[in-house]
Every structure is written in structure tokens, then in C-alpha cells.
Amino acid sequence: MKLWRATINSSLRGRKVEITVRPARPEDAEALKALLDRSWRAHWAPHVSAASVARYDAERPANGYVDMYLGAFKVAERGGVVVGMYHLDVGHLHAIHVDSWAIRTGIGGVLMDAAEGEGARLLDVRAFNVRARDFYLSRGWVEVDEHPDTEMGTPVRTIVMERL
Q: Which of 3, 10, 85, 154 qualifies as a FRET site for 54, CA 20 to 30 Å off?
């Protein structure tokens, strides 16, 4: 993958900022673990049981995920700081996250442009993640299936979406 660069009008201070999407490097691992932890706490934790949050705290699944798949990740970087990531494998977008403080700044769109440009055609999203679902729908993704799932032990619904 070549570097993907975009200039966005940032809502952070009403100025233009450059975002670079690039393959993750070993030195990104700790920043990615922290980003994924913040993302889970902001977007998943409010929808699961206290027992599931305690399980998350004990197991720290983001750490193992980063350790296992770092080489498959792409990161969005702004001013040398990792602000987002995605994990794409043969058209399946396994994960896409924007740091919680940077939601609605255009970084998610830059990441999706890169992922779709690389062939993203399928993704799963938790039904409770309405903001993400609306974002995908606005980009032409279609909900094609729904199934029961679990998040750290809490029953949830997962929506399967395709980009046609």
C-alpha cells in the first residue's frame, strides 16, 4: 500500500490538517493499544454489563489484538500522532477506529476512503453503534444481515454490511 494523504477541514480549530494513512509500524503498537482501549470504553462499554467491563479490564483484549495483527493494520496519522486505524483482510474490514476525541473531524472518512480504495466490501458493526452504522450507510454501505453475538459476555446484535 502506498501512503494515502488527505487534507481535511478539521472541526478541531477550523483549520486544514493533513492526515496520512500508512501501514502500522512496530513503534505504533502502544499508541494503537491505547486508542483501541479508549474506543472500546467510549463506544462499547456503555452498552454492556458491568461484568463485561470487568472482564474487559482483566483480559485487555485490545493488547492481544494489536500484538497479533499489527502488521495488517493501517494507521491514520496527524502531525506524527496516531489518530485512527483500520484492519482489512481480503475485502473484510475487521476494524476501523478513530480516537474518541477525533470523532467527526473527517479522519473516519479518510480511513474509509483508504480502506475502500484497498477493496473493503464487507464489515460487521454492533447494532448499538448507531453513529457508525449511519456513517457506513451514508457512504453507500447496505445492511445485509443481522445475527446474535456477544461482547465480552454480554449478548448483542451484530449487523453485517456490504459495499455494493
A: 85
Does the pTM of the predicted model rise above 0.85? yes
The rounded radius of gyration (Å) of the Cα atoms in the chain is 15
Grid cell 489518530 is found at 83
The 10s digit of each residue's pLDDT in 31-73 is 999 999 999 999 999 999 999 999 999 999 999 999 999 999 9
Q: Which element (helix H / strand E) includes 74? A: strand 73-78
Residues 6 or more apart whose Cβ sits within 8 Å of residue 110:
4, 6, 8, 19, 21, 76, 84
CA-wise closest residue to 23 among 91, 77, 60, 61: 77
